[in-house]
Design brief:
The protein has 8 helices and 8 strands, in the order αββααββββββααααα. It is α+β, with helices and mostly antiparallel strands.
């Protein structure tokens, strides 16, 4: 990490973005990025692959000639620091283009009056190229690469917000997606489905609190609402 900082070819501070997400949902995908990538493939968003190789390590393959590794150096509620090393191979290139990057993500959470939580995060990216010609070229095209990095950060943030909505409103769809995931540990499927159920229950509890004007609503009251919703759904399916 120190060597990357001392030999920075490119630096980019991504836009500060704010969106609604349960902290558990955000942190789950942050801790298990391989699950997020697997869901992308299920949704036909991307063919990118990422698989876990150690408690803090991952390997990646984008299937366009780019491969690499990721290592989480530090993870806490306030920040996550990741080192990435990768290379790009192409028949048009005499030798692979290699690069290293240091990523510093800083999220903060704030609970709103309606009980939902917003996430505000930004990402600092330090990139180092060992080849001087590549370093010079990268600096020349930096306006383009910075715009692409910003767009990717926005799209990933939007995806997390969308998954939070899906977990709150359509946990059954999450269950279907979990059943189709590939390239992840088997226990991740159950963890993803449990997370969706927890998000759905938390949303139902907030709605009951709003309707009743009470600060505390028991789990049994929430489960009664869920059972009634399930019965209504069954009745609706039986109606021609």
């Amino acid at each position: 990490a120190d060597e990357i900082i001392k030999n920075v070819s490119l630096f980019r501070r991504m836009p500060t973005l704010k969106f609604v997400s349960e902290p558990d949902v955000y942190n789950f995908f942050l801790t298990h990025p391989d699950v997020a990538v697997s869901v992308w493939r299920v949704m036909d968003i991307s063919t990118f692959e990422l698989w876990q190789t150690s408690p803090t390590g991952f390997e990646a393959d984008s299937h366009d000639g780019s491969t690499g590794t990721l290592e989480v150096l530090h993870a806490s509620a306030e920040r996550q620091i990741v080192v990435c090393e990768g290379s790009f191979k192409s028949p048009l290139l005499f030798k692979p283009i290699k690069a290293r990057a240091l990523l510093h993500l800083q999220p903060t959470f704030q609970k709103m009056e309606d009980g939902q939580t917003t996430v505000t995060h930004t990402l600092d990216m330090f990139v180092s190229f060992p080849s001087q010609p590549v370093d010079i070229t990268a600096k020349l095209i930096s306006p383009v690469s910075h715009a692409m990095a910003d767009r990717n950060f926005r799209e990933v943030s939007l995806w997390v917000a969308m998954m939070n909505v899906a977990m709150v409103q359509q946990p059954n769809w999450i269950e279907q997606v979990a059943g189709k995931m590939e390239g992840v540990l088997e226990l991740r499927r159950a963890q993803l489905m449990k997370l969706a159920l927890q998000a759905n229950i938390a949303s139902r509890r907030r709605e009951l609190q709003r309707q009743t004007g009470r600060r505390e609503v028991s789990l049994e009251e929430v489960m009664a609402v869920l059972r009634q919703a399930a019965q209504d759904g069954t009745a609706a399916k039986a109606t021609p």
